[in-house]
């Protein structure tokens, strides 16, 4: 795909180092009428991907399960919950030790 025809959201997110960004770009491409294979190829050819994104979304073929109407992926919901729990635990510990 010629760079001048790339959607702005691809140009602005050429570094895809987390699954949230991959899923966002992938869903936007699906909304623009690309199928799952085309969306994957556009991201692969135009973005730098981290090893984690490559393994979790491309190699494991999770991209085939993504559809534009999806909410946040279950693995990302779990990650977000773990992060918020850790933040809350750290905050409580700081308050108790103050």
Summarize, please.
By secondary structure, this protein is mainly alpha-helical.
Protein model, in words:
- The protein has 98 residues and is mainly alpha-helical.
- It has 5 helices and 2 strands.
- The protein has helices at 8-11, 19-31, 36-46, 51-59, 74-96; strands spanning 15-16, 48-49.
- A two-stranded parallel sheet has the order 1-2.
How are the elements arranged and paired?
Elements: H1 8-11, E1 15-16, H2 19-31, H3 36-46, E2 48-49, H4 51-59, H5 74-96
Parallel strand pairs: 1-2
Give the topology string: H per helix, E per strand.
HEHHEHH
Overall average residue pLDDT: 88
Total helices: the number is: 5
* Dominant shape: elongated
Q: What ranges have pLDDT less than 50 throughout 5 or more consecutive residues?
A: none
Strand order of the largest sheet: 1-2
Strand content: under 5%
Helical percentage = 55-70%
Radius of gyration: 17 Å
Q: What is the number of E strands?
A: 2
Q: Main β-sheet, in a few words?
A: 2 strands, parallel
> Separation of termini?
57 Å
Structural class of the helix and strand makeup?
Answer: mainly alpha
For this entry, give a set of tags.
single chain; 98 residues; mainly alpha; two-stranded parallel ribbon; elongated
């Amino acid at each position: 795909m010629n760079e001048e025809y790339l959607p702005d959201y691809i140009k602005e997110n050429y570094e895809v180092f987390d699954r949230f960004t991959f899923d966002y770009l992938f869903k936007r491409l699906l909304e623009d009428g690309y199928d799952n294979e085309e969306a994957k190829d556009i991201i692969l050819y135009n973005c730098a991907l981290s090893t984690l994104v490559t393994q979790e979304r491309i190699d494991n073929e999770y991209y085939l399960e993504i559809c534009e109407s999806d909410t946040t992926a279950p693995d990302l919901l779990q990650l977000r919950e773990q992060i918020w729990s850790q933040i809350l635990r750290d905050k409580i510990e700081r308050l108790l030790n103050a």
